[in-house]
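Deliverable D5.2: sample structural annotation.
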Amino acid sequence: MRLILASTSPQRSAILTSLDVDFEVVAPSYDEVPIPGSPEQVVMERALGKALSVAAITPDRPVLGVDTEVVFDDGDVLGQPATARDAHAMLSALSGREHRVVSGVALLGAQQQVASAVTIVRLRSLSDDEIVAYVAEGEWQGRAGGYAIQELGAGLVAAVEGDYTNVVGLPVVLLAELLATEGLSLPVVGGKPETT
């Protein structure tokens, strides 16, 4: 059965495409307002809200909602920078430090499943010239934390602990676990999704 991705993120679409998943993108009609709670609770609630907004118009199809935040150990959340100046400030704050990439994933099928994944990332110590040059490339736009690990931003990263695809935009390990609960599996090389 074709999956509905309740996200217009090109990164999430690219991951599903690379996995040979049959899916369709439907933009969620969900307003991201501030929500109290831990970063894990917030991203799970937002992922569920996105999925539910799409499931209301596609009730007979499995719907996938995802939300991601970049979080410091003290709980400070870095959203998406609005300007190049914001991106510079974020990357300066991330330089030489660890942060967590926290994603909430909601899969609405025969049942409603919501879970979270956490990946720890450490950027290397960056010079101001490096940050200026990276920001000038424009990769910060639409990216939580202001960098894209799968593109030029890979050169900013010193270490990743956990699911790399979570940092790109969709935790594949968690997705596989949720699909398995629905009796589905990710395609194997050269294959299509199968019912288990």
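Annotation notes: The chain has six helices and nine strands. Confidence is low (pLDDT under 50) at residues 189-196.
The annotation will be released with the project's public dataset once the embargo ends.
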